[in-house]
Amino acid sequence: MNNIKLYNQLSKTIEDFVPQNPENVKIYTCGPTVYSYPHIGNYTSYIYWDLLIRMLTLNGFKVNRVLNLTDVGHLASDADEGEDKLEKGAKKEGKTVWEIAEKYIKIFKDDFRSLNLVEPQKTARATDYIQEDINLVDLLTQRGFTYETSDGIYFDTSKFQKYGEFANLDLDQMRAGARVKFSDEKKNVSDFALWKFIKPGENHAMRWDYLGRPGYPGWHLECSTIIKTELDIPIDIHTGGIDHIPVHHTNEIAQTEAAYDTELAKFWLHCDFITIDGEKISKSLGNTYTLADLKDKEFSPLDFKMWVLQGHYRGRRNFSFDDLQAAKTRRLNWRNRIARLYQEDLKNSSFSQKQALEIVNNNLNSAELMALIDNSTLSLDDWKYVDRLFGLKLVESAPDISDELKEIISKHHNARLEKNYALSDKIREELASKNISILDSADGVIWEYID
Ligand code: AMP
Ligand code: ZN
Ligand 1 mean position to 180 CA, how many Å? Predict the structure, then answer.
């Protein structure tokens, strides 16, 4: 079996990854909150995890992956404060929360496809698991981990011995720092809402009856219930962004392990953030670019994917349009190397698919593999392998041209030989309109893709 190495947040080291069952490698990805257009920062994580899934599949494992869609309960602050993001989005757009969820789920799914990301085996909506949420809160209550406030049912983190170990949280410092705004009803500053009550007069359209009154689940609960229901614990790999470490994943671990006395996940992978031109992504800076914004600037989602794969999930990245242009140029250059293969006999491939996989097996080192691709000769079969690993649709987007086009190209060549430049220029223009450019050389004509 191949040696796969990944960084594990649990041990804070790079470790050998060995799935519990190669026929059912259980992976869970914390998905988006579907209340507004996702920006390119949001998509970096899904691109890194796409490489993970593709790498595992090429190693012969059968991946069973679940991704959730948060359509309720994610409050403006991760600390159980502020308005529910879905409710806020609905108010802003004059739609119902359900319409908002539908709209942004569709956009997310369309974007997912345009990035050529491998579909998860299951995409799970939080609101489809409310009964399971309630069952989990009941179980935690039976086991003595909860208490009630006027605001909801809270998880008592002081009862869970390992609380915060995962994130290296300094609970003493948290306590000291929070003394001023520490809610009087919460027993510990790190306690979190499992279930929120809707107060009379409070505007919260998504509501379910529990304990005789309306309410809705806390944000963290859905991931625990979806994992338990769809995959069962422990899963092999849980993925998310680094912002999930101190609160969301810390709380997911606490509530799951307190309920079932079983580990939630064997491996935790987190990706770092991207900045844009050195700045944080934020609405006030006007840099919350979506994939549609990139398309308006003539960049395909696959150019963005190429840019992401030039880096590493553990590194903080800075995005700029100059760097995106460089990634696009590199992608088009790769496509034209494929185009050459239809025109010249390949002497011999210097590329090893086995070595390529070994490089990516080493903690998803896509950048190193890209450098190897730049410096090797690849056969069509090798490019197909690269596509299986990176999902860049290189071969698919660079097919051999039709016999009709080949005929036109030879007419161009003859026109040049006959010094009929008016005709050769006309043909060149005609080819350009079909996205083909031609390079004349002493040996003949070489065609390439323009875009
Ligand atoms: P949500 O707001 O729940 O849809 O998800 C946003 C998620 O996207 C966060 O939890 C992060 O993990 C990720 N994210 C947000 N901003 C960035 C960024 N600038 N770079 C990378 N990931 C980001
Ligand atoms: Zn989650």
Answer: 29
Average pLDDT over residues 221-236: 98
Q: Which residue's alpha carbon is at the smallest distance from atom 6 of ligand 1?
A: 42
- Report CA(234)–ligand 1 centroid distance (Å): 25
pLDDT in tens, 236-252: 999 999 999 999 999 99
- Give yes or no: residues 40 and 63 share one domain: yes
Range of 305's domain?
A: 291-390
Final residue belonging to a domain, choices 211, 239, 271: 271
d(CA 78, CA 273): 17
Residues 408 and 382 in one domain: no
CATH number where 207 lies: 3.40.50.620
What is the model's pTM? 0.95
Pairing assessment for the beta strands 317-319 and 274-276 based on DSSP bridges: parallel
Spatial separation of the C-alpha atoms in residues 48 and 384, rounded to whole Å: 20
Q: Are 281 and 20 in contact (CB under 8 A)?
A: no
Tell me: do 240 and 117 sit in the same domain: yes
* 3-class DSSP state of 146: strand
